[in-house]
Amino acid sequence: MAETIIKIDLKQSPYENEQIHNRWHPDIPMASMVKPGDDFIIECHDWTGGQIHNNDSADDVRDVDLTQVHFLSGPVGIEGAEPGDLLVVDILDIGTFEESQWGFNGFFSKQNGGGFLTEHFPEAQKSIWDFNGMFTKSRHIPGVEFAGLIHPGLIGCLPSKEMLSEWNKREKELYDTEPDRIPQLAALPYADTAHMGKLSGTAKQQAAAEGARTVPPREHGGNCDIKDLSRGATIYFPVYVKDGGLSVGDLHFSQGDGEITFCGAIEMAGWIHLRVNLIKGGMDKYAIKNPIFKPSPLTPKYDDYLIFEGISVDEQGKQHYLDVHVAYRQAVLNAIEYLKKFGYTGAQAYSLLGCAPVQGHISGVVDIPNACATLWLPTDIFDIDVKPNANGPGAKVTQGSDLPLSKDK
Amino acid sequence: MAETIIKIDLKQSPYENEQIHNRWHPDIPMASMVKPGDDFIIECHDWTGGQIHNNDSADDVRDVDLTQVHFLSGPVGIEGAEPGDLLVVDILDIGTFEESQWGFNGFFSKQNGGGFLTEHFPEAQKSIWDFNGMFTKSRHIPGVEFAGLIHPGLIGCLPSKEMLSEWNKREKELYDTEPDRIPQLAALPYADTAHMGKLSGTAKQQAAAEGARTVPPREHGGNCDIKDLSRGATIYFPVYVKDGGLSVGDLHFSQGDGEITFCGAIEMAGWIHLRVNLIKGGMDKYAIKNPIFKPSPLTPKYDDYLIFEGISVDEQGKQHYLDVHVAYRQAVLNAIEYLKKFGYTGAQAYSLLGCAPVQGHISGVVDIPNACATLWLPTDIFDIDVKPNANGPGAKVTQGSDLPLSKDK
Amino acid sequence: MAETIIKIDLKQSPYENEQIHNRWHPDIPMASMVKPGDDFIIECHDWTGGQIHNNDSADDVRDVDLTQVHFLSGPVGIEGAEPGDLLVVDILDIGTFEESQWGFNGFFSKQNGGGFLTEHFPEAQKSIWDFNGMFTKSRHIPGVEFAGLIHPGLIGCLPSKEMLSEWNKREKELYDTEPDRIPQLAALPYADTAHMGKLSGTAKQQAAAEGARTVPPREHGGNCDIKDLSRGATIYFPVYVKDGGLSVGDLHFSQGDGEITFCGAIEMAGWIHLRVNLIKGGMDKYAIKNPIFKPSPLTPKYDDYLIFEGISVDEQGKQHYLDVHVAYRQAVLNAIEYLKKFGYTGAQAYSLLGCAPVQGHISGVVDIPNACATLWLPTDIFDIDVKPNANGPGAKVTQGSDLPLSKDK
Amino acid sequence: MAETIIKIDLKQSPYENEQIHNRWHPDIPMASMVKPGDDFIIECHDWTGGQIHNNDSADDVRDVDLTQVHFLSGPVGIEGAEPGDLLVVDILDIGTFEESQWGFNGFFSKQNGGGFLTEHFPEAQKSIWDFNGMFTKSRHIPGVEFAGLIHPGLIGCLPSKEMLSEWNKREKELYDTEPDRIPQLAALPYADTAHMGKLSGTAKQQAAAEGARTVPPREHGGNCDIKDLSRGATIYFPVYVKDGGLSVGDLHFSQGDGEITFCGAIEMAGWIHLRVNLIKGGMDKYAIKNPIFKPSPLTPKYDDYLIFEGISVDEQGKQHYLDVHVAYRQAVLNAIEYLKKFGYTGAQAYSLLGCAPVQGHISGVVDIPNACATLWLPTDIFDIDVKPNANGPGAKVTQGSDLPLSKDK
């Protein structure tokens, strides 16, 4: 078995582990060093570092401290990696801990981050998903079971100082256009809850003050939340600093395109088995700015879809110009209304679309003024037949259960 | 063989054919009537009605009159269809005309509609694609051949008066926010070039003055440009007027998600074989606002992908808030730069991404402030190996050819 | 459009067409010549040359003259082809004739060829399949509709004199082991009904007397009845004579692995669009004895299977040694019994397994003394749900119809 | 985590574990009892019980005692199961032991069981495969790496007394037709090495004398070696005795259709996670004789194939009558010759075809006198491009390594 180079203790605070960090900064020391060609295992906290529990209350989702997230394992240094290289990462496997066979999904309160449909679901809710081998189901959402397309939500290399500076500058400019907005427009550096790995003292304080938050995806990859970056995929990451500094976390048992519920996919703690190689000077050889990847040969075949269209006219009937975000929101809302006809509550449907291997396609982006987006709902994940027929919905799911909700305090 | 209920003559102007129209309006008389359960064939002009020719000049793309498009065949009335029903349409087949074994793709001049990357490709260009059975290749783009995922870009039922009125209102409001913008924000009604099928005289004039343009997708479907609405798919359309009034056109031999080049996919004239049925009261039974569909069991298997990521930071480094349109543009630009390393010109790469069965996925829409979108490039369509390796690009495509360009006058 | 180099007239006897032949012999003159790189269209009779009709009697199946089959179009000569080359054939497309939108499937009488289950279905029966675009269904088999995986049952190059001699020798030896067996062990040369293309006079008589029958697949390919040799596939054929001499026929709209009903798949007349190229000396370069091929990128996705196992213990309980033929027969019989529980007659089920895109896998061939074979039944071709559940079969197909049967005279 | 109801110790002889057995007999007591709806984990020895080692000598394969195999874990009793029921088994997961990250494949000596190509490879050889997460590669076969389609080679319920008696009778009859044959025609009961689980004393002796060997697949399933019975599949097993008595073993990391090398697939020790349910009276409800199953939604996508044809004319040119076994052997030999052109030795190619997810299709079984079978070789498992082109094989694999061979003593 490959060596586990970063270990965690689920009962311990991630702040006590020097091989964990929750900000991006070039000064964070390597947690461990490996060589090109090596394969190794890294253990990861769930993205909140254990703030969410396997119970039937959404209080923990409501009260979560989002300045702490995401707890990442790393950075792993690769001998010989230099700025301009491509770091080739094979995801050889991802798994759960024997003692932690569950994951969570939730909607944040609109007061604390919100989500894609926060106007429709403004308060904290949660669903818990049990793992049975490669399958999962939830006691809060009846009538579905499916295999996980397990993947890391967040993976990438440390930024250079120049890149970090550019990130902070452009996000601050956006933030400043509407500083009082809730949810906020961007998550700016915040030293109080920063965990900078092995850094300590003044060096830590300085880095913490300017360390980029882990929330958005950026040039290096980062929090891309791409469900297809799954076990078996090969990813080509730009390298910006000596030794590369690869960090990973935010493991998902399964997720729909868009990770619409924000909190988030089916979030889990677990381990990831990686192999690394280098393409020297690869950024220039292939004109790489953002990571590229090849998908896994091993993905669940949920490919009988029912497809919902959405256009960029919002819920109030207002016309937007080629806005795919609005269009996808309409497709999602259309799917939720459809599922309600089969007995689901709105919250169940919303959570399901965030967790199941739903596809979101950009279908038309030039036919002014409407963008068109489609949501692809796999029908094989349902116990009942959810396809349309001449008689209307037949069997419906057992009602009674729903996602626990915790009102804002 | 099923009956051909709408015939066209490629040598005749579509304006001379009463079974063609190019605006949406409830008053357009049915071109033909069928019964539920019937299957039938409809012939279609290419979307421009023959304005673009199989030659090596982009003058026709530059000079195209976009107020004429799209020429649609129909409307077909279905006996018994009433507002609130769902019209179930099986696309049994789509084909080309023996005498017209080619299609076109192009970029409009920024002065005349532009396209997704009009800032990068501001002048008219064109590529011609030859059909060889189910495959296509272009003399303007070397080293690619692929099977077509043939589909109608535009299909849907006539709107009601109320719906038409709503369309015109909301699009006018958007247009008025920046009326001098080029390209324009919306295509408003324009009577001069309207073709209202069998309507004539005052009735025609009145309808032409308020008939909605065919450019955007809307609640009824319309110009969705969804490549997966292909031969073999089943679509459920909302019905808004008595007899439904199904129209179809804008056939594509193949298209990438987004139809980024706007002019457009691989555009072609041809025929489509449909079967229709009704779900009475289906809009309410299934809470349907926009069409839904089931994809075809028969689609080309180009599923070895190289995937490019893009985030919502634009070419000038400006940060946008969860803007999937910007993110997808970056993914597309990243793919173009990559392909240039293999010998393609930028225009060749751009056209190819508009024509080939490229997928565009919405990958993250909640990780503030960056949306993440991915472009999935199928690698099996290339003669050469375009996957990355340690040595950099090996074989390159034969250079010399390029897309003809016609400068603005 | 590519040129049609071999045309047929469905109302004319294939014997009157010099570009048709029904035996394999190196002396048959080329029907037409093409160059490497050319693409062209060839029209084909159904394999019986029109002996079977679109009606509700199986008399024609009972009375068919099997010494006439298969009527092949060709041979097509390829300039420069020499023995030892590989002929690369791209199947660009296959289609039906507008005036012939149907196909047939049947069981021969045990007295006249029989079939895989002739002990169970000893008399002639027939099912007729109507084509609706890319889909088909049968008035003799309720509750199924599916897209065709259209392909030629028979395609290959002319044998050399030496190869022909070897074929005749080895098949005669087998035949002679049980010359009175019904059905016969092999179909030997038979001059009376031979059609030798352009050959006439003595040359024809001589060739007819030794021309190999077209029934079995052999080293050159021939009557392989491989459903995956479909439109879009690329095949590499050994070349044995100057100019190659490619012939093709026996088009199938769809077929299950094994073509178990023998008469046969969904048999049809139609046309095939081919492109040819050469790999000089390819047989040696790649150690090729039999053809190899790459499957099409375009195949129907019927991939939700119910899989039936069979072992090499026959219907009488007798143990056979690693006999895949017996094992597959048991898997087929198991599937038939299963389908009868859903309301199908045995004949309907048998015919369906011969026509639908059923897979037959060789699952175990070493676990003495039992071979294990599996039959993969695609469940999406059925209108009803045929998967097992705790309650037993739910909805059944409408009964009443069945395959017409004609008793032996 | 589900409970592990059967544990093993890789350092202990399986004969010392009461929850293991290596013969089929209705008297073997249940090793453990579960309820319908339960899920649980079972640990399994490799099929030889540890006789083969991770080294570079084939002595252990040559000297293996095949009367000991297969060591099965079970039988597991299911409360309420009765003869005539169907036992529904969901394979929730399968995994390896952390301390045993490897598997083996080999050819038995013709003196000791042989294999599919024992005439061509008559002596013992072995390849060792290392597991890297979900991927595997072998130090004895260069240039390949692929994801495992992990599955149990052997699984099924205990036979009734009547069924056992029938098995013994028919296999003895076959054996007696050629009792001196090597390899033998069937493996008859053999008490000396029988392990009958919890049975002891006279009861054990009696059962051991008549217990059926585990080698062949039979009505109950058993040693089917079906690669598609993989993690994620659902199987419906006939029940013949009270409580059912489900046993499982012979885990494979990967296997090609046919398990042609006999020793066998990539053989491994490991664990399997199962869930059981009952369909009362299901054998009659669905006319079930042999198990049926639904394949997993999670299988490796190695679907770019190069397909080799074989017909039932053997290596000596002798004609066989519709013999799929002979036809598949020719397809396999054709593939081996092809791979040798890319630098593989014959033994490497043979082993690879037994281990990789190769498909074996029954393509034609009625075209007298030749059966046609096809071997589907996935091309994506190779580091080099193995597809044909005009120039002949390009890059070849690194030569020098080969499978160790141990000569007969």
TrEMBL record, chains A, B, C, D:
<protein>
    <submittedName>
        <fullName>Formamidase</fullName>
        <ecNumber>3.5.1.49</ecNumber>
    </submittedName>
</protein>
<dbReference type="GO" id="GO:0004328">
    <property type="term" value="F:formamidase activity"/>
</dbReference>
<dbReference type="Pfam" id="PF03069">
    <property type="entry name" value="FmdA_AmdA"/>
</dbReference>
<keyword id="KW-0378">Hydrolase</keyword>
<dbReference type="InterPro" id="IPR004304">
    <property type="entry name" value="FmdA_AmdA"/>
</dbReference>
<dbReference type="InterPro" id="IPR054833">
    <property type="entry name" value="FormamaseFmdA"/>
</dbReference>
